[in-house]
Amino acid sequence: MKAVTWHGKRDVRVETVPDPKIEHPTDAIVRITTTGICGSDLHLYEVLGPFMGEGDILGHEPMGIVEEVGHEVTEIRPGQRVVIPFNISCGTCFMCTQGLHSQCETTQVREQGMGAALFGYTKLYGQVPGGQAEYLRVPFGNTLPIVVPEGPADERFVYLSDVLPTAWQAVEYAALPPGGSIVVLGLGPIGDMSTRIAQHRGAGRVIGVDLVPERLARARRRGVETLDLREHENDLAEVIREMTEGRGPDAVIDAVGMEAHGSPGIKMAQQMTGVLPQSVAATLMQKAGVDRLHGLYSAIDIVRRGGTISVIGVYGGMVDPLPMLTIFDKQLQIRMGQANVKRWVGDILPLLTDGDPLGVEGFATHKLPLSKAPEAYEMFQKKTDGAIKVLLKP
Ligand SMILES: NC(=O)c1ccc[n+]([C@@H]2O[C@H](COP(=O)([O-])OP(=O)(O)OC[C@H]3O[C@@H](n4cnc5c(N)ncnc54)[C@H](O)[C@@H]3O)[C@@H](O)[C@H]2O)c1
Ligand SMILES: [Zn+2]
Ligand SMILES: [Zn+2]
Asked: Less crowded by CB within 10 Å, the N or C end of the chain?
């Protein structure tokens, strides 16, 4: 089959690799019909190289048609339409039954000290072949796939794999009071969808921050107040306080993560990991604070005293310096983590079948054949051609 494989910093290729096979009686093989490129894939493309292996198959936002199932799979059958969550979770362990699927105790990558395995996402998360491919082996065939209705186009449902539950959790963790105010830092797919869900769930005021004109414009078209970071590099928090009765918003979502624009000093440490031998670089990434923390620092500054910060952007450093004095004195609550995809599906699915209040149709700016993955990655990373969300069609 054809699959998108990793070969080094900013080097992904479409190659022919062996077809996946049923390995356990509860496995399913899914023929992928649509698969997204995520902002998290950009970390693999740029800074997480030390944790990748040459030829690893990328991708964790797939959906498609069940092709084949192992003999113990009773809950899905060939021909059914399914979306596959990015977390590989068993659905039956202690963590899964608490709705903490990203901590699944059956798939935790213990030798790396990490939580649940993920599709297509580094040795830290199990080095499991991903879903930017023609076929995907899916474990836990009875509990992991999300069966979705026939009829509407794939883009109605594909975001159930990641974008929707991730943004839903971002808003949930923001603990917004009814009618409250929220700032979303970063208007990529995750931040953009978070603004839509915050509006849908009754936020009184939604303010979005980014530095890419078409991302700001797209949020504005849906009634989000926007601030262009390029105009407010030094006074962002001040301006937001002025907009929110001098106090700051009830909550801030950090949908930027470790590759934030800004904080040039830390950028250098991050770039160093690109030129070191793999093992040294991996240790440096994990042991040294090499995140670019601009997003998180601004969240701490912006949020009102006693407010909540919901960190949904991914961070990866181990000794990142944090302004504990400010965090403690402002009495902040900070919540974070990988999205527990299956936990939120029940809340979201009705919004996809009954009208389209979140605007998932038309959310993708580009739909390209899988063979165009190298161009698609480059375009999404450089934010050229108005790229905000890219779907690949195997
Ligand atoms: N927690 C999870 O389960 C989960 C799931 C999916 C994605 N993510 C993470 O969420 C983050 C966003 O993902 P995405 O797909 O939207 O990616 P993206 O890279 O398209 O979005 C990031 C946006 O942040 C903007 N930005 C950069 N620096 C900024 C700053 N200092 N202030 C404000 N905006 C800034 C960029 O211009 C970009 O539009 C990534 O870190 C990704 O890894 C987390
Ligand atoms: Zn993702
Ligand atoms: Zn589990």
From this structure: N
Residue owning the nearest CA to atom 35 of ligand 1? 186
3-state secondary structure of 185: strand
Query: Which ligand minimizes its atom distance to the CA of 379?
Result: 1
166-336: CATH homologous superfamily?
NAD(P)-binding Rossmann-like Domain (3.40.50.720)
CATH architecture of 2-162+340-393: Alpha-Beta Complex (3.90)
From ligand 2's centre to the CA of 85, what distance in Å? 10
Compute the distance from residue 39 Cα to the ligand 1 centre, in Å: 6
Predicted local distance difference test score (pLDDT) of residue 319:
78
SS3 of 283-334: HHHHHCCCCECHHHHHHHHHCCCCCEEEECCCCCCCCCCCCHHHHHHCCCEE
The predicted pLDDT at position 275 comes to: 60
Enter the pTM of the model: 0.95
